[in-house]
Amino acid sequence: MLGCPRGWFLRVALTSAFLRRQDQRARILVARPAPRARSQAPGSLKRFLGYLKMEMTEMTSVSLKRGSAAIEDNDSVAPAEEAKRQKVSGCCPATGQDGLENSSLPSSEKVPGPPETAGQGKENSEVLSEEEEEEDGLSEEGEEEEEAESFADMMKHGLTELDVGITKFVSSHQGFSGILKERYSDFVVHEIGRDGRISHLSDLSVPVDEEDPSEDVFTVLTAEEKQRLEELQLFKNKETSVAIEVIEDTKEKRTIIHQAIKSLFPGLETKTEDREGKKYIVAYHAAGKKALANPRKHSWPKSRGSYCHFVLYKENKDTMDAINLLSKYLRVKPNIFSYMGTKDKRAITVQEIAVLKITAQRLAHLNKCLMNFKLGNFSYQKNPLKLGELQGNHFTVVLRNITGTDNQVEQAMNSLKEIGFINYYGMQRFGTTAVPTYQVGRAILQNSWTEVMDLILKPRSGAEKGYLVKCREEWAKTKDPAAALRKLPVKRCVEGQLLRGLSKYGMKNIVSAFGIIPRNNRLMYIHSYQSYVWNNMVSKRIDEYGLKPVPGDLVLKGATATFIEEDDVNNYSIHDVVMPLPGFDVIYPKHKISEAYREMLTADNLDIDNMRHKIRDYSLSGAYRKIIIRPQNVSWEVVAYDDPKIPLFNTDVDNLEGKPPPVFASEGKYRALKMDFSLPPSTYATMAIREVLKMDTSIKNQTQLNTTWLR
User: Fold this and answer.
1) CA distance 443 to 65
2) 344 in catalytic set
3) Predicted local confidence at residue 212, as pLDDT
């Protein structure tokens, strides 16, 4: 494809085929539970959230994310009520943030590469080498097949909701079953921007700009010339310049070649030379390696805003990976991109992105190269986007093959609309392996660094990716970080980074070795512990006092927490009540739950009165989080259908292509519940769905109940 680096088309096609196979495996059955007490979490759902990286809608700098991103903490951006967060507060990137926050767990997951710093411009911002990229690509397909065979065994050692304090429901309706994310297109997330508007991809046109180069810049260079220029730009050979002969020597032709090189290969400068009576355009580096992808100030019109904002529509890819891919196609560093929150992989997501000094014309050209991506709604603006600026996310979710009667569905959805759901941190926050992330976080807070190292590197119960098993076995046998590292084909996972650190700093300096792991991923562990404490305390609070405010509860006035007094209790509802994530800058309720916090932290050898750590990064100031969330813009309908493969609503791309919306018969073989609702940042859509279906969302529970499905 013109304008696309050589080899990319094949890679994208192979990736697409891999994702389609993954999609076919991702059926998630939510089985109807037997009636139980409200305090229990019944139900079953096939491999629910195995692909449930849907959670955490996003990750932000001040709240828990592959990182991202969490994926998914409803975009994981810190909510308004959590404004009083510590500098590294409350919910750092952990995993797909709801909505999808990308990435649940550090362990045995790839640590986000360059994109993790997107919009920040600090560490890890170099484009990965071709070699690293191919290495990762080769390992993924084998891993997927291995995972399919061993997933059930692995999940026998996973967590249940009970393990992380998720035990209560707020509604009394009877649960029913359904299939969540039978197709990734059954889960769609639209970002709600700073102005409160829901982001939609509605326009693929490019703003008219007289200073844009012509379309000829994308076709004037041959594939061989583009390859040579790319190798020069990325310092892949010893050439210091590349000369391109001007066949049809006219000023216009030379101008187009100059524009093409500067536009498509940032960091290169050009000049015209006469050689033996022929004209050549010579490309070269103007300022060494620092010139790579740094936007040239002189080439950007002063009248145009420095940032091109656009809406990114993507299917089955998280925000971090998407930005990595865009940066590679554009040949720029990922840290020139910015966004308000990360979106998860297994979904269709629509969000706003900003990029520094890349024209809308270049971005629009990517629509011809990329599969499962669309870029549009371009505009030039003066400022980038910032993590946490979004107001939330709007979800469109289809639960297929539901068993509930119309009356049951009506009761469940009315309860969600009027009362809401408990604002638990979802299962993705705590990991999918035998070693929960909160255990690592607890060891960090205890300053038990040998335990931190062992928890991350020791052999684990159950099956996991083959190369990780070999790495852990080597570590257990030799305690040689270099030998264990050689067993890892993918070095960017948390295990690989820690082993690199141990090789560099030695076994007596685990703190520095651990510090090699990107900061957001390190903080994810301690935020996971905070979330674990919060979930348990909220369950105790509801068990003790029910769904009404009581004297001694906390509410927020602005960013300040205050106690509800006896004579003031009628002025508040349960939707006003907040509870603290433990830290040195929060207060605790003035009732029994305060002592419960103290007892839980004491049992974990932590001092609730001194949450400062010897290492500043790991000092927790704490935050506040509402205990009940009432979704906004709630609507639903039950539709009948016969073919499980047909889409049950139109996406933005369908609408752009003029596809008519699906028409449903009055009767069909199956019934589906289509839900629409909006959530604030840092809330989990899976917890809302849990309340509707009355199910246990843990992968372990669903796998044990549905092992035949995996055979």
Assistant:
1) 19
2) yes
3) 56
pLDDT of res. 398: 93
Q: 582 with 608: CB under 8 angstroms?
A: yes
Q: Which of 311, 342, 352 is nearest to 193 (CA)?
A: 352
- Residue 81 and residue 626 in contact, taking contact as beta carbons nearer than 8 Å: yes
Distance (Å, rounded) from C-alpha 618 to C-alpha 452? 13
What are the angstrom distances between the C-alpha of 142 and each of 148, 227, 283, 465, 615?
10, 30, 41, 9, 40
Q: What is the pLDDT of residues 639-662, one digit of tens each?
A: 999 888 888 999 999 999 999 988
Could you please report the per-residue DSSP string of 215-232?
GGGGTSS-HHHHHHHHHH
Q: Which residue has the tokens 């289809």?
A: 398
pLDDT block averages, 10 residues each, the chain of length 711: 43 44 43 41 40 38 31 40 34 38 35 37 33 32 38 57 93 88 85 94 83 64 82 74 81 79 75 84 68 52 88 91 89 90 87 94 88 94 92 94 93 96 91 84 95 91 74 92 89 87 93 91 93 97 96 94 94 96 96 96 95 91 96 95 89 94 86 95 92 80 42 34
> Which pLDDT value is given to residue 291?
47
Pairwise CA distance, residues 60 & 51, whole Å? 22
Q: What is the pLDDT of residues 226-268, one digit of tens each?
A: 888 877 877 776 777 888 888 777 777 788 887 787 777 766 7
pTM: 0.70
**Terminal C-alpha separation, the chain:** 40
* DSSP helix/strand/coil, 380: strand
Structure tokens at 495: 């295990």
On the 0-12 / 13-18 / 19+ scale of CB atoms within 10 A, 37 is exposed
Q: How far apart are CA 115 and CA 518, in angstroms?
A: 12
Chain position carrying tokens 């603006």: 381
Q: How far is CA 168 from CA 42, 46, 310, 535, 692, in A?
A: 10, 21, 41, 10, 13
Alpha-carbon gap, residue 695 to 648, rounded angstroms: 23
Can you state the percent helix, strand and coil of the chain, rounding each to 5?
Answer: 35, 20, 45
Catalytic residue among 321, 344, 553, 652: 344
The count of other CB atoms within 10 Å of the CB of residue 266 is 23
Report how far residue 262's alpha carbon sits from residue 72's, in angstroms, rounded to the nearest whole number.
39
Q: What three-state secondary structure class fits 133? A: helix
State how far the Cα of 508 lies from the Cα of 502, in Å rounded to an integer.
Answer: 9
Q: 659, 531, 563, 668: which is closest to 90 by C-alpha?
A: 531
Looking at residue 497, the DSSP 8-state letter turns out to be H
Burial of residue 534 (CB within 10 Å: 0-12, 13-18, 19+) is buried
Q: Between β-strands 178-180 and 337-339, what pairing exists: parallel, antiparallel or unpaired?
A: unpaired
Structure tokens at 416: 């969600």
Q: Which one-letter amino acid corresponds to residue 323?
A: I
Residues 610 and 619: beta-carbon distance below 8 Å: no
